[in-house]
What we know:
The structure is a homodimer of 498-residue chains. Chain A is of the alpha/beta class. Chain A has three domains: 1-115, Orthogonal Bundle (Arc Repressor Mutant, subunit A); 148-386, Aspartate Aminotransferase, domain 2 (3-Layer(aba) Sandwich); 397-497, Aspartate Aminotransferase, domain 1 (Alpha-Beta Complex), CATH 3.90.1150.10. Helices cover 40% and strands 13% of the residues of chain A. Chain A has 16 helices and 15 strands. In chain A, strand 2 (77-80) and strand 3 form a beta hairpin. In chain A, helix 2 (50-57) crosses helix 3, helix 6 crosses helix 13 and helix 15 packs across helix 16 (479-497). The radius of gyration of chain A is 24 Å and the shape is globular. Mean pLDDT of chain A is 86; it is low at 1-7 and 93-111. Chains A and B meet through helix 4, helix 5, helix 7, helix 8 and helix 12 of A and helix 4, helix 5, helix 7, helix 8 and helix 12 of B.
Amino acid sequence: MSRTSGLDVPVEIVLNRAREAPTLSDQIAHQLRAGIKSGVLRADDRLPAIRALATRLSVARTTVDTAYAQLIAEGYLHTRAGAGTWIAQTLPESATVVASPLGSALNAAAGSSRPLSEHARRLAEVSTTLLPQKQVPLAIIAPSEEMSPGRAWTQIANRFGRRPWRHAGYGEPQGYLPLREVVAEYARKFRGVHCDADRVVITSGSQQGMTLCAQVLLEAGDTAWVEDPCYTLMAATIAHRGVLTVPVPVDAEGLDVTAGMTLAPHAKAAFVTPSHQFPLGMMMSMARRAELLGWAARTESWIVEDDYDSELRYEGRPFPSLQGMDASSESVIYLGTFSKMMFPSLRLGYAIVPRPLVEAFAGARLLADRHSSESQQAILAEYIREGHYEIHVRRIRGLLQKRRQVLIRECERQLHAYGAVLPCDQGMHVVFRLHDHIDDVAVATPLRQGGLELRAISPFYVRNTTMRGFMLGFGGFTPEAIKAAVKTIARALAQHVA
Amino acid sequence: MSRTSGLDVPVEIVLNRAREAPTLSDQIAHQLRAGIKSGVLRADDRLPAIRALATRLSVARTTVDTAYAQLIAEGYLHTRAGAGTWIAQTLPESATVVASPLGSALNAAAGSSRPLSEHARRLAEVSTTLLPQKQVPLAIIAPSEEMSPGRAWTQIANRFGRRPWRHAGYGEPQGYLPLREVVAEYARKFRGVHCDADRVVITSGSQQGMTLCAQVLLEAGDTAWVEDPCYTLMAATIAHRGVLTVPVPVDAEGLDVTAGMTLAPHAKAAFVTPSHQFPLGMMMSMARRAELLGWAARTESWIVEDDYDSELRYEGRPFPSLQGMDASSESVIYLGTFSKMMFPSLRLGYAIVPRPLVEAFAGARLLADRHSSESQQAILAEYIREGHYEIHVRRIRGLLQKRRQVLIRECERQLHAYGAVLPCDQGMHVVFRLHDHIDDVAVATPLRQGGLELRAISPFYVRNTTMRGFMLGFGGFTPEAIKAAVKTIARALAQHVA
Lengths: 498, 498
């Protein structure tokens, strides 16, 4: 984020002076609070003097004074007589930062005389705190020979991949046309997405899709809604663009759109997981979908729909994609991935974008890394075109359905004293909700150190929550491994509540 | 770039009020001029009123007035009585923009009611103006079966790639350790780079390396030196980070470091191609290297060394990398790629970074796209480890040396009336310098439309130049194809000067 605003801390404050906007001091307080929560502002960062900030923002000194006082009262700031105002070291409980600060490995690189920028330090924290899951039970994704695309893939790869240098020049940033064609057909057929190949942009997976969205749709200083709870790496991606992420609560119907409109009426974009909320698992209701699309059309905001595991629906009829419900075809960017159904090492996914944005996405992709491997794109295109992908998805769904039943049954059998599995018909994980008094982090931490990949739910929330629970992945593990893992959890819970 | 500064145009002005800094009006003029040249400010953008900008920057009105008057005199701005100050539609000749504005394809997407941001429009221009070269003579890179890594690659790919899902979880953003190990060994041995595997970050090629550098080293509002002329996509990559790129002239010894220190003494980074200046081809002299390293150490600035085709040295002894000459090991980020020697579809390259920056690069990579395909990394690691890469490079070098001789001989034979080949001992292209009065663009444009990939040299320059010439790639073509292409150029030149 630019420091050119001249503040002591790298936050940019944008004031809306329209008559219907919140008071200026509320806006200042809100943006500072969001900056603290998102981790852009950190403990011991000094805020500019009241007079200096007031001058810069062209507001009265009392306006800034009121905002600071509010945040001091809330515990976000503290003040030292004569010395200024600082971000508090101990933040209020609701201010869990997106990427939790860590005594960075950088400090170990002592002897370095050259100071790192604040920005570089925060990028370093991303890599030292957002570690990939170990490939042990009950990780969400893990290697499993039975789930591999198998011989059909190998044969096509041999046929197409034997001379990868045939695709020897630089390729199209938007993606290899034959792959865009089969992706468009697939998304239309199975997810009701409005599209043709011209609107498909091939990515190297959902993460790049998210980054491209942040780059094309948002600028530093903008505000965006994210779900609370949400995927930590996604929120970090947006925050590192210099965007203020406003956490909007989800309930049983998904994103609370009304709450979003109250918290950040002028957000430029909403990042959502409507078919399978991450991490909780519910589907966004039709009423909420209509409300969200209405908001986006009215305010000319964007919706980013991350449809990360839509192939894995076990029961009931799926809703079509949110993108497919958008009559204007102008509001929604739909993100899909092949990492989950094929294998992460493939590094291929896609974005389906409103037509006026296609060139901008292609330009952002060109600047990012030119394009995806054309030989890999050619292999995948042929695999889909010959029908192997559909067969593969059906086979995996059957296999995962069985593993999912084993996991749910084991939870009911071994863990019923501590909570229950949340209803959810889709994906590669379920959420076991604990009774409110059980500390999910305290139980999960020693188990993770002991070699079990158990993710506690509460850290995914930015706001204070009574939700406690675990994410339990079942995709990569045999029934025996799943049973054993649940037993380990049961033992730990028994010890914890004892 | 953030628009939060409240200006009518998206430029951020950062003033250095130190006593040794240039005058404030010079700083304002310089930053506006750079913004216009880089394409961030565009024809008909309106500048803020003098009073408003003076208030915002906390300077006297005469300071802004002086800066505007200077730029009006230079032809960058014009003013309409009572209406304000605007970027001129016809810019002075020296202000060639980095990515030339084009009637974007977006305007064709009429019917769209939703306005695109300025930022999205510029990303779109990147994809509509910076098109990849067609794979026809005399493109710099083109498919060629003889230059492929061949059977050794296929065998290892079969062995390692048969079950790519073995690498099924998410990998390390920094890269697959066995590949980092062989890359470090290779860079130490052949390029004298100070490194071990801990300092290697695997990228998906030079372009991603450049983007990661821009993200880690620079922030919006910073200034960076680029060579003039330079690789257009590289300059666009930095400019899209919101950084002002200051073009620094090159002469026969490479980058003119003294000129850089005069033009932008407070630049945060210098992007250079010391072993084979792109596009002109000269090597940076030892004196200039020492001067550049001294500047970086003194000012705590970064040097990004793009060593994009160092394997292809035909005559004379190469200098070691600039990185290897940096006693502090703290100033230089070294970028290498496998696209050029293997095939672009491989999408693998590397950055070797100062130790304190490793985590920041890994974090930026995680946010960008997580990591490169582990199965591809494993295949390449084995290919290098077994010694095939060295053998491949030697073979390609011999093959290209012959093609290069054919091209140079044909230029001497058929084009001697129009200019001469610039001295250059490295790479996949040579530069044919035309006599100054011949218009390289006028000759190249119809030939490109006619199916010959001929790049004129003058558009690579930002500043006014008398240099006219062509980039001639010889890597992908048979001697017969090279002869025929030179003949076509000779005919076109004869017609042009007639």
